[in-house]
Amino acid sequence: MKRSLMNVVLSFSLVAGLLVGCSNASQSVSSEAEIDLTGSPWNDTCIQGNLPEEKPSEKDDFYASVDYDWLEEKQDEVYELAPVYAMASTTKSISEVIVEMINDESNTSKNMDLVRLMYNQALDTDTLDKQGNSTIQPYLDLIDKADSLDALNEVFASKDFPFTPFHSEGITTTHMDGVNIVSISDNLLMIDSLNSYGEYRTEGFDPEDADTYPTTLKNYVQNVQNALLAMGMSDDDISDEIVKLLKWEYQYGKECSYSTEYSDLEYGEIGSISSYLTLDELQEKMGSYPIKKILEKEGRDQSVSYQTADEKWLSAFASIYTEDNLDIIKEVAKLKVIMEAIPYIIPENSLSKQFAVSFEDSGYDTEEEYEQSQADLKAEEAKSRAYTAISQVNTLGYAISDIYVSDYVGDEAKERLTTLSKDLVEVYHKEIEENEWLEEETKEAIYKKLDKMRFNILEPECGYFDYEGVSLKTTEEGGTLFDNYLILKQYVMDQENKWIGQTAMSVSAWITYSPTVQNAFYDPESNSVNIVPGILNENIFTADMSDEEMYGRIGAIIGHELSHAFDYLGSQYDEYGACNDWFAGNDKEEFLEKQQKLADYYNSITLFNNIKADGDKTLTENGADLTGFKAIVALAKNKDLDLDEVYKAYAQLWEVVMDTSYAQLIVDIDSHSQNYLRANVNVQMTDEFYELYDVDQGDTMYLASEDRITIW
To answer: Considering the domain boundaries, does residue 127 fall inside one?
Structure first.
């Protein structure tokens, strides 16, 4: 399932998933070259080995000063492309909490019974080994037997085939004054377009030359290679198969939207990206692909319209979904089924089996040690697979999130976060009231947007599914993990179908990502701030956290998300999530001048190796950081909190240590600024910082008052 890419643009990802990235950026440096780590006005002390021998003053490098001890402690824990983030480090993760709750037999709720059944079924490696590919083989056989495109289309349109290999679906809205509709997006094999950086549009990319593949694409290709191995294909054949698959998919993949391209649009153009089509129009654009029959079998043919981002990909896909390409279409379809099924099966040719190390090659002194190591490895793999199986949106992600919030987090935490969110809205109201450059008409538009804003704190607007009508089968009853996955997948779709045509709700993001992930986001099309349960750990928020810590950590995150409603992209949407220009007079020009001033300031910063920060690419995130933090400071002052503790908690929020390769990836692909800048730049933009730490001209953190940027 996917939601519109538009909904992803303004999301704030805590740990940005930067283990992969493009290697073709214009400012990239060779990994073999000697890198100059000197920056200006500060060195990037997030980079391993770039911490000064002595702790700097708060007046010269606030981030390094506050976080010095933590940064020093973590220097030896970093490996290539494997950073250590404080906000992701926790003594007990949500997965560990959930597993503890599963093992507590005193919890006998309906949801927990389902979670426990599926979790234990996924732990049963012996049974999964015996089943091998048998649970998915009937679906692969259906594809294999299709001897024409018409026959394959009949397979895809059949209720006996619960997969959509060439498109993804979600629930979104035209706007929040309308109704819920169905969204249609691509379902690329080689690339996850929700996290894409335009790999197929990379300059010089050649499907037949692996040296031209961006790093992210190489990682996705590896996943497909693993699936091909699981299907029994030999190493010698896989390389040729990958090239063939890439050449075919590239023909329409280069037309698919990707999340970072929206920042390149001229202000006011974002509304032109999404298309809203009737079902017949959608079918016409997708050519021979049976999208209409698929939606009919799913009960999704009654949507008043179907949203897609940048419809060029539809016709590009239609041009290669032809009889002449039947063989490769079938190969791609089978691979998509296998990759969807992988969390719920152990293929007969699984990687763990193919690359198992014998006792002779293991390096262990005794067979007993070797066997114990293999048993431990098998157990860890089983635990990972089991948690993955229960935590997906289309399995039991809602169930475990509901259990986690109600039984572990508690009502007090939710109440504190809800109160904090409402207080931030009041701060924004006051800031806008006191604003001297906005016309009253613009102020009224902002008030409307603030008042209509929805805050989904630890649960979606629709609430969590109750799963009361779901019946799963144990292995003893003849059930399999994969069959139970399909039962839950259908249940989730049935629940979503009930929303189609109903009054618009802010649910699209919650049915795309599991609520167990560590994230928070603003959704412009529903004008909603969303705080998902997975964000909660002791470094972000706990119920017993002091107000100062709460404001500097989760408060800054909520402020950041709220601020996305009024940044370069979010300000193009009105209170209902429709693209409307609500600026009066010359206010838009003044707003854009302030945005440019912020971009220019970041553009003046040197990161390392003479590479400049990209203030234009990171503008929306920088604007949300700045405005959100200033709102938190204003709220903390109103509440008479200890500002020193708030500021330091904010700096600690961004603690991370990484190697130079990872630092380069951030330069190449991330829409957020480097973590040390997210701390230093935003604190130096607040007047309170100078009085609090006696910062004056000559100090590195000093910025003249006329150069301090305020957006609103």
So the answer is: no
**pLDDT recorded at residue 530:** 95
Query: pTM above the 0.85 mark?
Result: yes
Q: What is the DSSP letter of 439?
A: -
Characterize 427-441 residue by residue with b for buried, 16 or more Cβ atoms within 10 angstroms of its Cβ, and e for exposed: bbeebbeeeeebeee
User: Is 655 within the bounds of a domain?
Assistant: no
User: What is the average pLDDT value for the chain, to the nearest integer?
Assistant: 90
CA atoms within 13 A on the CB side of 103: 9
Domain count, the chain: 1
Parallel/antiparallel/unpaired status of strands 611-612 and 180-185: unpaired
CA distance 121 to 123: 5
Cis peptide before 343 (omega within 30 of 0): no
**What is the distance in angstroms between the CA of the first residue and the CA of the last residue of the chain?**
37
Q: Which residues contact 558 (CB under 8 A, 6 or more apart)?
A: 417, 420, 421, 424, 520, 529, 531, 628
Its sign, for the CA torsion 629, 634, 640, 644, is positive
Torsion angle of alpha carbons 584, 586, 590, 591, nearest 10°? 20
Q: Please, are residues 291 and 320 in contact by the beta-carbon 8 Å criterion?
A: no
Instruction: Measure the CA–CA gap between 379 and 391, rounded to whole angstroms.
Output: 18
- CATH code of 260's domain: 1.10.1380.10
Q: Examine residue 91 and state whether it is found in any structural domain, yes or no.
A: no
One-character DSSP codes across 189-200: SS--GGG---GG
Asked whether the bond before 41 is cis by omega within 30 degrees of 0, the reply is: yes
